[in-house]
Amino acid sequence: MADLICQYGASDIRLADIGSDHAYLPCHLALNHKIQAAVAGEVVKGPYQSAQAEVQSQGLDSIIQVRLGDGLAVIQADDAINVISICGMGGSLIRSILDEGQDKLSQGPLLVLQPNIGEATLRTWLSQHDYQIVHETIVEDSQRLYEIIVAQHQPGASELSPRQAYLGPMLSQKRGPLYKQKWAREEANLKAIQAQIQAAPQPDQAKLAEIAEKLGWIADSLSQCQEEE
């Protein structure tokens, strides 16, 4: 996350880290002189206090402000935030945070997002709100795979197709070992769900059609991975 913020952010990064988890990310960036200022936002008092303690212990009070509030509500106009990071939440929740805080996106800050599930709904929202995905990657942590999405504000950005939103417009082009691993796992999960639905007395045909479409996308993409080996 930190490397991507530095790579795609402006030269004078002013970061809002939402759901900041002890403010580790802004503290790391500040200690390495990579940001000018940061807001660490937490919606629950316990994590808010933990983030405050971390910032104070690192002597970063003059650079990082820890605020208690819901989503992007912690951002104030005079913060001049130009990068927003949101990590470790479901894609639907990140989408809701962005949707409810659209007034805080008026200046087009860079978005660096790490959904742990529900990536497709998040990508769809981005493409419908003038955000162009400029980088995607998959990382592995404790045997779990996570996607990181970097999006820049770009009026008139083209809307993603359902397949692009599901597989990732950039990930599905560059693919790679973790991409293959992720979608092989998802293919197995979907086939198991498909079998359960088919075994029901009255199978949900709409759900089966949705699964069949996704399995088709995955099979096609994985076959391209095999051709490249």
UniProtKB/TrEMBL annotation:
Annotated Pfam families: TrmK
Any one GO molecular-function label of the UniProt entry: tRNA (adenine(22)-N1)-methyltransferase activity
PANTHER family: TRNA (ADENINE(22)-N(1))-METHYLTRANSFERASE (PTHR38451)
Protein name: SAM-dependent methyltransferase
InterPro entries given in the database record: SAM-dependent_MTases_sf, TrmK
